[in-house]
Amino acid sequence: MLDKLYRALYRIRRVEEEIARIYSTDKIKSPTHLSIGQEAVAVGVCEALRSTDVVFGTYRGHACYLAKGGDLRKMIAELYGKGTGCAKGKGGSMHLIDVRAGVMGTSAVVGTTIPHAVGYAYAMRLRRQDTVVVSFFGDGAIEEGVFHESMNFAALRRLPIIFVCENNSYAIHAHQLARQPASNIVERARTYLIPAERIEDNDVLRIYGLVKAAADEIRSKQSGPRFFECMTYRWKEHVGPGDDFDRGYRSISEAQPWFANDQLKRLESLLGPQVRERIMGEVEVEIAQAFQFAESSSFPAEEELYTDVFGEAAQWTAS
Amino acid sequence: MDRILTYAEAIREATVQEMTRDPSVIVLGLGVDDFKGLYGTTRGLQDEFGPERVFDTPLSEDGMTGVAIGAAMAGLRPIHVHIRMDFVLLAMNQIVNMAAKARYMYGGAVSVPIVVRSIIGRSWGQGPQHSQALHALFMHIPGLRVVAPSTPYDAKGCLIMSIRDDNPVMFIEHRMLHSQRGHVPSDLYTVPFGKARVLAKGSDITLVGISYMTVECLRAQRYLGEVGISAEVIDPVCLSPLDIETILTSVKKTGRLLVVDSGWTVCGASSEILAQVAEHTQGTPQIRWQRMGFAPVPCPTTKNLENLFYPNAQTVASTAFAMVHDNQRSWTPVHKEAPEIVEFKGPF
Ligand SMILES: Cc1ncc(C[n+]2csc(CCOP(=O)(O)OP(=O)(O)O)c2C)c(N)n1
Ligand SMILES: [Mg+2]
């Protein structure tokens, strides 16, 4: 298990470092929000899920997409705006999707996918499937009314959903305590009678263990929802590849404990050098191939502007 | 005194001057206190007027719009700023069901003097959910004023007018206009609602550009001049109420009307303008009209499709040329990408 978690963390970190490196060349011509520093949440959660489980995420979605098994080549091609991207280049970094892998889409409008996860969970219950749905969102999203409306309905119907709040303390440049009277998101979930936990230290093993237990229970006892507030930290600027500790809204000293607690380094130290190097080697090859794939793919054909606005004429049969 | 300011500076100046003049003016919105200052339009305001009159909000567009409405009912004049118009969609209930109707449904007993500033438009692959221009949705609603100035002069005068007006005003700014420069008087002045501006005189065709499309229409007008076509360019400035008289006067002179919107055409501002022109010119069959706007699809993120999605000076000039020649001839000027679009770079 350790090596799987390590691979997932390493892969996401390295993919995003490559994105950051390439960004200055303007090959990626759209807003891109990196998860560097926060990978442990997506990895801990998604590794605890089955491949048939489903996640909904946010514009800061690379980690969630990759951790859940989204196709790396199609993601990089999407960032490049190529026709081979997961959304044919029409979405970009903020609109990743891989239905086959159970990544149901990320949105640029904060909070908008939370109720979708609830609706998906409702459909799973209706169809008597044992799929568990995860909704990822940030600490800013809980300020939107739709978050509370979604929690209320999910709790009311005891739906098979796990809410995961990735609390990195900031919404763009505004600290949580400049936006909310207290840092107690976990408490709000409890008022809806949703069993909720707050994980303070980005501990990937603990997140994995807790989510696994929660998913098992939801499946065996039909006892959703569950809620996790995962404290974490964004290392890069809100949007884009740069560092921003010189911009005055947060200090590097605040970040230092998070750097020291880097989960990638932690797992690295727990694995033998051979395993580590094998994984690194394999991942580097995969990443190089993905960027190569994006580079060599074509931009969408002009006719693509008009495709996918509507579906094809429906076959009116019950599915 | 007349100086050259950018559109963004003109907005900031109008805000500062009105806040100084009237202590009931407040500014709220996501990021209004941010060091990036919403493209500079709110930079330094909090330092100048304090955190009670200028404040960042939680991510609660619906609720905070209601808060602004309540504050306006109590006599404040809130300016609620949205960095993207797409986020105003979360506040539709408060804007459409309450702000627009409060005065009427309460029999004139209350007013809701709020200004909702929102930024629209393309730039750096903003894609389907970060670039929409939804002014037409608001034009549809009685009780809302909708302004979309395109010059620094009008930005300042319209914003002051909007703040002083006792009604809810949707104040719409295209991101590609923020860097445009122009003459702006330093004193306070208002630009009245419902008065269009003729930006260039011409005799062969009338080009009406909405918001940023006025800039592209003016470029198209210069291209057309090179092939002997004289285009008149009109900026409606205010979309609701709409100054149809100025447009009609021009159309009756040129006999041709091309409306170019920074939005979709179906049920859009261009539909409204053409419909009103048609209503007023019935029995004048020689008048020709056409409109341009976004392609009828969500905005794609990838650049090559995005370039096809938006009208630009070349496509406008080429369409106008064909209209002037009754579709018997075609011509397209050499494509030059607009400098403000090339210069605007992410990550944002
Ligand atoms: C409804 C809505 N309002 C405002 C924005 C602008 N915006 C984009 S990201 C963001 C901050 C979100 O913070 P959080 O939910 O904590 O997520 P994080 O970026 O920290 O991952 C804001 C305000 C938006 N995209 N959608
Ligand atoms: Mg956050």
From TrEMBL, chain A:
Cofactor: thiamine diphosphate
Keywords: Oxidoreductase, Thiamine pyrophosphate
Domain of life: Bacteria
InterPro entries tied to this protein: DH_E1, PDH_E1_Alpha_Subunit, THDP-binding
Dehydrogenase E1 component domain residues: 10-300
Tagged with keyword Ligase: no
An individual GO BP term: pyruvate decarboxylation to acetyl-CoA
An MF annotation (GO) of this entry: pyruvate dehydrogenase (acetyl-transferring) activity
Protein's recorded name: Thiamine pyrophosphate-dependent dehydrogenase E1 component subunit alpha
From TrEMBL, chain B:
Cofactors demanded by this protein: thiamine diphosphate
Keyword presence, Ribonucleoprotein: no
A GO MF label: oxidoreductase activity
CDD domains the record matches: TPP_PYR_E1-PDHc-beta_like (cd07036)
Keyword Oxidoreductase belongs to the record: yes
InterPro entries: THDP-binding (IPR029061), Transketo_C/PFOR_II (IPR009014), Transketolase-like_Pyr-bd (IPR005475), Transketolase_C (IPR033248)
Highest rank taxon of the organism: Bacteria
Alphabetized UniProt keyword annotations: Oxidoreductase, Thiamine pyrophosphate
Listed Pfam families: Transket_pyr, Transketolase_C
Domain Transketolase-like pyrimidine-binding: 5-180
Name this protein carries in UniProt: Alpha-ketoacid dehydrogenase subunit beta
Organism listed in the record: Candidatus Segetimicrobium genomatis
Organism classification: Bacteria, Bacillati, Candidatus Sysuimicrobiota, Candidatus Sysuimicrobiia, Candidatus Sysuimicrobiales
